[in-house]
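Hi everyone, sorry if this is the wrong subforum. Our group has a chain we'd like a structural model of before ordering constructs, and none of us has done structure prediction before. Sequence below.
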Amino acid sequence: MLDGISFTKGCYTGQEIVARTSTSAASSAAHSLSPSGRRPARPLAGLHLEGSKVAEVVMSAPRGDAVELLAVTALDARDRTLVTEDGREAVPVVLPYDV
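Answer:
Right subforum, don't worry. Here is the predicted structure as tokens:
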């Protein structure tokens, strides 16, 4: 028996993540960007603003004649043009709905 969860002392599965997300404000969110060129960015590639990494690519795929990517981005960098690791500009994609 591991005794990994104690129901008598008030611990439960997921308590750590619940405690962390309910006591701190979010500092990043998913945003859609379109880098120049037709080559998708690799997953986990960094995106930079003024020389500092402010985002990380989650996924990237061709869309028509362009490429679109989803990245976890620092909130203070949202709606800004970022730069991929290979030097391409990635502009924010305007969503067809309000967030």
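For your construct planning: The CA atoms of residues 43 and 57 lie 5 Å apart. The chain has one helix and six strands.
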